[in-house]
Amino acid sequence: MEIDPKNFPRDGFLELLGVEVIDLTPERCEVRLEINDTHHQPYGIVHGGVYCTLAESAASVGAVMAIGGKPAVGMSNHTDFLRSMREGTITAVATPIHVGRSSQLWEVDMTDQEGRKVAQSKVRLFNLPDGVAD
């Protein structure tokens, strides 16, 4: 299943941050974020939580596509921070490592506008059997 990323429903948190879905298929999800001062921690660099959010968002959206539009929710998010940023654009690309009946594992590479890797994540997700989170 492939859908137009411009028509993908965005939640309030992604709207708040300014995350844009660029590409979306069952095998790949690409999101992008233009950095501004609201994404900084007190030392003027991008807050680590921004990278974790991008990873979780890209993996979650991709995971939903991978199982035909059914809900999937994050179970764990391991993010390594490789290079700090103050400004520019972060692009996160999520690809599945494993898509199973009950869980999925996705890898997310995040790069800056010059293509340098700034963070990398692995996100494990649970496929909700009834479409409802407890």
UniProtKB/TrEMBL annotation:
Which InterPro entries does this UniProt record tie to the protein? HotDog_dom_sf, PAAI_dom, Thioestr_dom
Which Pfam families would you find in this protein's record? 4HBT
Family matches, as Gene3D superfamilies:
Hotdog Thioesterase
- List, alphabetically, the GO terms of the cellular component aspect: cytosol
Q: Which domain of life is it from?
A: Bacteria
Sections of the chain in a coiled coil: none
**Where does the Thioesterase domain lie?**
43-119
Provide this UniProt record's keywords sorted from A to Z. Answer: Hydrolase
Q: Name one GO molecular function term.
A: 1,4-dihydroxy-2-naphthoyl-CoA thioesterase activity
Family membership: Belongs to the thioesterase PaaI family.
The protein depicted here goes by the name ComA operon protein 2
